[in-house]
Design brief:
Blueprint: E1 22-27, H1 51-62, E2 67-72, H2 77-84, E3 88-91, H3 104-112, H4 121-127, H5 130-139, E4 147-150, E5 165-169, E6 183-184, H6 187-201, E7 205-209, E8 215-222, E9 241-243, E10 247-250, H7 262-265, E11 276-278, H8 285-301, E12 306-314, E13 320-326, H9 337-344, H10 349-363
Parallel strand pairs: 1-2, 1-3
Antiparallel strand pairs: 4-7, 5-6, 5-7, 8-9, 8-10, 8-12, 10-11, 12-13
Helix pairs in contact: 1-10
């Protein structure tokens, strides 16, 4: 496993110490009633947030005495930031399209010297590129299924790729471009689907071996010195990381059986056609240990900061294969995977949000480290 990252080298110049901050929550808001522009995919903007999520985030941040303001992460964002002058930004913005869109807001904040939460520019740029992410993981010997990127659609299929295959956009999230037709069983279906992805989503198609086994997602919180800045140091293990309980996603009875699609993800937990969400997953201790190890290593290899969520699926022999990592995991309570994982072990939504805030702020010199005195283990309320 790679060694700990030297976060001291990453810190921007220290910002004045304050007890309470003006926090700008940055997000792209979806409006299900507003018609989509012409020429965009049918599920465009699926990863944007509802305004209700922003309201809940602001309420959680304000519990600790901070003031908050919401700023839409659109093309007016640079001007709004200069006018509002936040002390720190809580970033959940997905970006406005194009390559590495999730890195757009972090890049702007870096340029303006404004502290923000979560991973930095390069990590957010790489993590949305599923092909590049898999190449990095594969080269560092993390288990991924055989894969190939199609740029024009008629590339020769590599011999290690055997049908059935799974085809999806190489640079999207939230199950965008994924439905029952994503599973292809022959050459004709492969070419048709790859061409559809390339033409509709204006990006390469990622083709990989279809994984028929169980699907899990693993959340990671913290870093090497997390205990020095967290409101809940007892959450973190000796290496500074908290591994959330593993969440199993059972899509066998969803609206798109065996496919964790955007249509399935968009349904409320427990609704007809929604996947089953089981947390903690009923798995053998050895598999649990493997999944958590792979998720943390995936997080570290991309230099992710403070929080991430990694999706893993079992192959036909029951071996874990990493699918993708989300360095901007959703934060809608009782809906987003990370929030379901936190709730399963008794972590309040407000406490989760505030720890993400303080982990981010500490990297920008906004908090003094405190001496951590080890306490007897505290059981998280259930």
């Amino acid at each position: 496993m790679p060694g700990p990252i030297n976060h001291a080298e990453e810190k921007a110049p220290r910002h004045p110490m304050k007890r309470y901050w003006k926090i700008a929550v940055l997000a792209n808001i979806k409006d299900d009633h507003h018609p989509k522009p012409e020429g965009v995919p049918p599920d465009a903007f699926a990863d944007f947030d509802h305004i209700e999520t922003v309201d809940l985030l602001r309420a959680a941040l304000e519990i600790d005495g901070h003031t908050t303001v919401f700023i839409q992460a659109d093309r007016d964002l640079p001007f709004a930031l200069r006018e509002i002058k936040p002390d720190i930004c809580f970033n959940i913005a997905e970006g406005l399209g194009g390559d590495a869109r999730e890195a757009q807001v972090p890049a702007l904040l870096e340029m303006l010297g404004i502290p923000y939460t979560g991973s930095r520019v390069l990590t957010n740029g790489i993590s949305l590129d599923k092909t590049l992410t898999k190449r990095i993981w594969r080269d560092r010997r993390l288990p991924v299924a055989p894969f190939q990127e199609f740029n024009v659609g008629d590339e020769p299929l590599r011999p290690e790729l055997k049908f059935p295959l799974f085809v999806k956009p190489a640079r999207e999230g939230t199950g965008m471009g994924v439905d029952l037709k994503a599973i292809v069983k022959n050459e004709k279906e492969l070419r048709e689907r790859a061409q559809y992805i390339i033409n509709v989503y204006h990006q390469p198609a990622l083709v990989e071996t279809f994984l028929p086994g169980r699907e899990f997602t693993v959340g990671i919180l913290g870093r090497a010195d997390a205990k020095l800045y967290s409101r809940h140091p007892e959450w973190y293990e000796k290496d500074g990381f908290h591994r959330f309980p593993i969440l199993e996603l059972d899509s066998s009875r969803s609206v798109t059986p065996w496919v964790y699609s955007n249509e399935a993800k968009s349904k409320d937990v427990g609704a007809d056609g929604a996947p089953g969400y089981f947390c903690p997953a009923e798995i053998e201790p050895e598999l649990e240990k493997k999944l958590k190890y792979f998720a943390l290593r995936a997080h570290l290899l991309l230099n992710a900061l403070d929080v991430s969520r990694t999706d893993i699926r079992l192959d036909e022999e029951g071996n874990p294969r990493l699918i993708e990592i989300n360095t901007l995991p959703g934060l809608t309570p009782d809906y987003s995977d990370l929030c379901l994982q936190a709730k399963a072990e008794g972590i309040r939504y407000e406490d989760l949000v505030l720890d993400i805030l303080y982990l981010g702020a500490s990297r920008w010199g906004m908090l003094e480290p405190r001496e951590y005195i080890p306490e007897s283990p505290k059981k998280i309320k259930t």
